[in-house]
Write a structure and sequence with these properties.
A 5-stranded antiparallel β-sheet has the order 8-7-19-18-17, with helices on both faces. A 5-stranded mixed β-sheet has the order 24-29-28-26-27, with no helix packed on it. A 3-stranded mixed β-sheet has the order 2-1-6, covered by helices on one side. The chain is elongated and about 125 Å long. It is built from 23 helices and 29 strands. It is 33% helix and 18% strand. The N and C termini lie far apart (107 Å). The longest helix is centred in the N-terminal third of the chain and has 17 residues, at 145-161. The protein is of the alpha+beta class. Strand 18 and strand 19 (547-554) form a beta hairpin.
């Protein structure tokens, strides 16, 4: 082993000996170094870059955890202050030597032979050569004499084929700075929260001394940075330098500055699907401007809903023809209690959003028309394990209504009656064919399937609505859209068009939503809201001529929301997106298919205004009336609640005087009846809208009588006693 002193003498002699010009022989260096273009081309950030359809970056996802690398920054994009500080600190005669600074080498050799051996002489070119060739890198015991000579020769060869600007640019991009930070882009965006072009002289001084000691402690860095600032003629930069360096070091593991972060959940989906190109990029189908709008809309409206139990939201926008995903927001970000959960893919209860598919089925099977009347009155059904008693969202009943009004106003009882015509199993099979992830058959869900008792994902639900927008043709969502999809017909074009016409009808939905709501847009759009049981989820899904938009609002824990429905929770976000996507040319809606026949209709007793309605096949008729309206017996008032034969079991956990049974009478058109008299067990009980009844154990008979005392209807009610009945 040659001692350090003898090595120093040898290097001193080598430094003073006349040197030939750099040779062009590729064997001159320890190995063939790549050229600048190859080094630049081989650089890969540690993040996968997700690009929008137009090439703009919208998301970065960390893929390589061996080091944290940013983008390659050209020398013109690097602060002149940093270039100056690095050259002053590492290689003062960088622009004068040919790869080896012989004067610095002589000084280093002298110091190695007769000094403390701490002076270095590696030029930027020599350091870059070591970065490019693993055989030239310093080992645990330092570099031997032959390795040092190889490094010098490699640096001279590098200078013969690279320009000084290329050497400095590559050095600043390849160098390690602090911890896992490698390259000037990672350093500047993480530690200094800015682009490399904006680094100040003080920031540059710290970056330069980090090159010499990437993991040096704060006091050492402060001392070296201050010394360098003095060399650069800026001693005033030492004021407060220690605090500045401490703050900068505390950010060494921070998120990348100015990273858009618009679509983290969709980016992970694409990565899992293997969509990454060889250069570490993913060209997605997202619209950058629409995605940014969706993120902002979610955050803005969720802030408005603070205090209601809403913390999460999700959005997906699909192109109707190709299925391309134009926007995808998996959570509300910082407002979410589970920001990493992809709520677009999470299973949640569908609520009323399944009703359009039920009515489309009923139309196709010609069991209903858009003008058919359905009775919106209390309904008791045998559910196998007990009675299934559906209710409307607002706990009110509308009597006889057309299918158009029932669907547009999202009335529950008519939907259950429609499912009684179609059958739960038939509906379940069609929903599965639409891509909805139902895990049980129709018998399991029963008639509650009409009200959305099944769990679905926002993506699958939105894509099912896209089938209606495509005239009943279903096609899966592609990870990469290649053009218009053919699809599988699941509904007739006529049924899909009529359902869309109903869901775009402001007048028809006014009964529930009014004329002015977030569901009203400035161009044609069909839309449906939904709220799941116990207010855990609310939805708003709809389509225009070109896009289908789905929005979910709720919270990850599944807790109930307070006073938030589909129209107030998800509706405003849906409205923002649909208005942004609106095209004036689409304001009139899609063209009516040839198989849809328009015809004027009227309704008996003025149930609904006369209008033009649309029919399939030979189902058209001119007048619609409730069954038996002309019969005298059917035309008189009747008891709507309680139903005859009702059996009540009093709840022992609720005080008996707090329990009530609703009492209602309706006329032949299912409208509230006022000119009637109620009797209970033969005694007068009330008139018109009688008060609710506090049940008492035993058998009781309610009677409805006219002014002459004739019995119009009666209902028997049996009340079972609770354990406290004897103490009443």
């Amino acid at each position: 082993m040659i001692s350090l002193r003898y090595l120093g003498v040898w290097l001193l002699a080598a430094a003073l000996w006349p040197q030939p010009a750099p040779a062009a022989d590729p064997e001159l260096s320890a190995g063939n170094l790549p050229d600048y273009a190859a080094v630049r081309q081989s650089w890969r950030p540690s993040d996968i870059r997700v690009l929008a359809a137009d090439g703009r970056e919208i998301q970065r996802v960390r893929a390589d955890f061996s080091a944290r690398r940013g983008d390659w920054v050209p020398l013109t994009g690097i602060s002149a202050a940093l270039q100056r500080a690095v050259i002053q600190s590492e290689d003062r005669r960088f622009y004068e030597h040919g790869g080896v600074d012989w004067l610095a080498s002589a000084s280093a050799a002298w110091d190695a032979a007769w000094g403390d051996g701490r002076r270095g002489a590696s030029t930027l070119s020599m350091q870059l050569a070591a970065m490019l060739d693993a055989d030239l890198r310093r080992g645990p015991q330092g570099r031997g004499i032959w390795q040092k000579l190889d490094q010098m020769q490699a640096a001279r060869r590098l200078e013969s084929t690279w320009t000084k600007a290329q050497i400095l640019e590559a050095y600043l991009n390849l160098a390690s700075y602090r911890g896992e930070l490698r390259g000037v882009d990672a350093l500047s965006r993480v530690m200094f929260r800015k682009r490399a072009s904006g680094l100040t002289l003080r920031e540059s001084a710290l970056a330069a001394v980090l090159l010499r000691g990437p993991n040096a402690p704060l006091p050492v860095l402060a001392q070296r940075s201050c010394a360098l600032l003095r060399d650069l003629g800026r001693p005033d930069g030492c004021d407060g330098l220690r605090d500045f360096i401490g703050l900068s070091l505390s950010r060494a593991h921070a998120a990348r500055f100015q990273a858009e972060g618009l679509a983290p959940h969709w980016a992970r989906q694409l990565i899992r699907d293997g969509q990454v190109s060889p250069d570490g990029e993913i060209r997605s189908t997202l619209d950058a401007d629409l995605q940014r709008l969706a993120v902002r809309s979610v955050r803005r409206h969720l802030r408005d809903l603070q205090g209601t139990g809403v913390t999460d939201a999700a959005v997906v926008v699909l192109d109707n023809r190709s299925g391309a995903v134009r926007a995808y927001v998996g959570s509300s970000g910082g407002l979410s209690e589970a920001a990493d959960v992809d709520h677009v893919q999470a299973l949640r209860q569908a609520g009323s959003t399944l009703k359009p598919f039920l009515y489309a089925l009923a139309l196709d099977e010609q069991r209903l028309t858009a003008a058919s009347l359905l009775d919106d009155q209390p309904l008791d059904l045998d559910g196998g394990g007990g009675l299934y008693i559906p209710d409307n969202y607002d706990h009110h009943f509308s009597g006889w209504v057309s299918a158009r009004v029932a669907l547009a106003s999202s009335l529950n009882i008519p939907a259950v009656r429609a499912l009684m015509l179609v059958g739960p199993d038939v509906l379940a099979q069609r929903l599965e064919a639409l891509g909805l992830p139902l895990t049980r058959d129709g018998d399991y869900y029963g008639y509650s399937l009409a009200l959305g008792s099944a769990d679905v994902t926002l993506l699958s639900l939105t894509n099912a609505y896209r089938a209606l927008a495509r005239g009943g043709s279903y096609a899966p969502v592609p990870m990469r859209a290649a053009g218009p999809q053919a699809g599988q017909p699941l509904f007739s074009r006529g049924a899909a068009w009529i359902v869309g016409d109903i869901l775009a009808d402001r007048q028809a939905r006014a009964r529930t939503f009014g004329l002015d709501s977030p569901l009203s847009t400035r161009s044609w759009a069909a839309v449906k809201t939904g709220t799941s049981r116990d207010m855990r989820d609310n939805w708003c899904v709809g389509w225009s001529a070109d896009h289908t938009v789905g929005v979910w609002v709720g919270n990850s824990a599944g807790a109930s929301m307070r006073n938030v429905s589909g129209v107030s929770g998800a509706g405003p976000i849906w409205h923002d997106l649909m208005d942004w996507l609106a095209r004036p040319a689409s304001s009139s809606g899609p063209a009516r298919p040839a198989e849809v026949t328009p015809a004027p209709v009227t309704f008996a007793a003025g149930l609904e205004p006369a209008r033009t309605e649309y029919f399939l096949g030979d189902t058209a008729q001119a007048v619609f009336a409730p069954p038996g309206l002309d019969s005298a017996a059917a035309g008189r008032p009747r008891i709507a609640e309680p139903v005859d034969g009702t059996l009540i079991a009093l709840d022992p956990d609720i005080p008996w005087d707090r329990q009530r049974l609703r009492v209602r009478a309706v006329d032949a058109l299912s409208r509230p009846a006022s000119d009637v008299r109620w009797f209970l067990d033969g005694e007068a009980y009330g008139t018109g809208a009688a008060p609710d009844w506090a049940p008492r154990p035993g058998l009781h008979v309610f009677q409805l009588r006219d002014a002459a005392g004739r019995v119009l209807d009666q209902a028997r009610v049996t009340v079972r006693a609770g354990p406290w009945a004897s103490n009443r």
